[in-house]
Amino acid sequence: MQDPEITTEAGDAWRGHVLNEVVAFLDQNRNAIIERFEAGHQKGLSRQQLEQQGLLDFDVAITLHRDRGHDFGLGSGFFKANLIR
User: Fold this and answer.
1) Is the dihedral of CA 33, 39, 43, 48 positive or negative?
2) pTM above 0.85?
3) I need a surface site. Which of 5, 28, 49, 52 has the fewest CB within 10 A?
4) Which residues of 66-76 are buried (b: 16+ CB within 10 A; e: fewer)?
């Protein structure tokens, strides 16, 4: 027996859940992520520069592969959230 078609609402709920998990992970691991960047890029940016220049403010997007257009773009399933520190 074939599984029933997944509704748009169910797919949106899954995408929203994954996005929330990604944002929570980034928030919980913020300091470690910055520390690894600083350690691996000696001539790179410091934590202070990252904060002062607004480089810690960015968008995170989750696009389900099934929602992408066949030729170009993010597709109709594109969803994003602002990650605010």
Assistant:
1) positive
2) no
3) 5
4) ebeeeeeeeee
